[in-house]
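Re: beginner question about structure tokens

> Can someone show what the tokenized structure looks like for a real chain? I only ever see the sequence side.

Sure, here's an example I had lying around. Input first:
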Amino acid sequence: MKFNILNLAKPDSLYNEGMRVLSFSQLSRDGPEQLSWHRVGQSISYHTNTFKREGNRWNRCYYTLTFTHTFTENNDQVYFAHCFPYTYTDLCDDLSRIERDRFSQNFVNRSTLCRTLAGNRCEYITITSKERDPNSEKSKAKKGVFISARVHPGESNASWMMKGVIEFLVSNTAEA
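And the corresponding structure tokens:
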């Protein structure tokens, strides 16, 4: 089956450098291979299409991602994605693991900023100095840094990057 995803705005894409889309098949996951998300797609191209971006004084075009996929099973549920999913459950599991860690308990604080429309917690963590006395004048005078990721729902790659940043910052290395 050939897929055309229209009206993308970037003039270039990693799909032109060999990147492939991700796929998840319910039957493959439940089968003997227990295959999870994996790269698929043939005849992949990312190219200009004929649609112009309205209200744009430079008269730029939209772009199309095209790929083909061969379905191997009947009555399967198959999903496609640009990046490996990072779910709310993944986030909760990662934050709970950090919260339980004896080393990071001394300088990591997990809090709820608000709740989403779905009722999920929108959380933030504070990672402070690893100094013995967090109430010292030196500690109180330190400036803070705010790091944010996953501003939009489809930015799972940002969640993976933030996972790496957090794991580095709570690690037991001199740089962290």
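Each token stands for a local structural state, so reading them left to right follows the chain. The beta strands are 2-8, 21-25, 38-40, 42-52, 61-68, 78-81, 108-115, 121-127.
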